[in-house]
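so my prof wants the structure for this chain in the tokens format not the other one, which i didnt know existed until like an hour ago. anyway here's the sequence
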Amino acid sequence: MNKADMYYFLGRILALDFKTGSQDLLIRDFFVTPVNWNGFVKLGSDNLVLPALYLKLQKHQLTGYLPEELNVYLQGVLQLNRERNRKVLQQARYVKDTLLTADIECLFMKGTGHMLDGLYSDIGERMVYDLDILVGESQMMKAAEILRKKGFITQKQFNPRAMDSTMHYPILLRSDWVAGVEVHRMAVQYLYQKNFTASRILENKVAASSDKEFTVMQMRDRIVHNFLHAQLMHSGHYHADVSLRNLYDLLLLSRKEDALDTFLQFGHYKSKSLPYLKLMYRVFDMEMPRELAQSNYGSFFFKRQEWTLKMSGAKLHRYHLLIMFFQKYIVLPLRVLWNRNARNYVFSRLTNRSWYKQHFEAVKRLWGRK
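here's what i got, hopefully its the right format
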């Protein structure tokens, strides 16, 4: 089983709840042949879906196909993630209550928001690293300062001159916390603000289903945010290397709201959002809506995605570096010519002496990563 086969094997496991007869098909197509369990763990870990995979296998009585040692390991991973996420949700309440004392209401985004809204079947299903909160654009600095007074620190100093192009305050950390806090003034980078501004998102916010004291994005906004964050901000579309965690979140969201209609109504980036949605149906081996299947978008994206799945780890790393350097050192300088926020982004960094050391240390880490 090569890397591409393993990628789709993991996809089929994650989709077990949503396809009739999928358990028998999975046994017939995969478990009857030897499985590279080291590859299973490596790819599942890289895509941040090991807890979700084990939960699906457990629910559908398929853990008997796993080697006993792997069974014990995955049980441990799931239990650790459950314990961590319980602490994350406690921390979410602390942040919410602390900011409310200053009349700042925060909206929880991404994994924490999904957990609060009951998107997952188990508290340990989603791996979450940071608390991403959205506040009013003018409230970011005040919210960050309140948290700093509560013992939070940053490893990167905020540059006020970069405010116009800043999406969030540098991540706030505390030694006794398992997750950092990102205080956002924008849900997405300045490039992707088309009809997706913080003010509009906050205006359409809804109460979380598990606890009405928390607020989250409405379902359509969460679908759009999933796409913008995964495919554009984190360059999933450009790299054609798509995280199963992001696709799985999209799958769960699409069971609550029509994702195709959402993307069509959003109306922006169709040449990238529709291939992403097509890939979701392909990876999870599910029937695609006719309108989506008949659209012409995606053929080149799929060829590139198949190509990246064949790459070795070292080759894929070099490929990602090449795209990143092209975006940062060719595309971004050109964008400065016509985009005011891009100019702010670039020049606020070039005029900040401490930025150079941070930047070259980051490049060094990326270059040395295997």
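also thought this was worth mentioning. Residues 1-66 form one domain.
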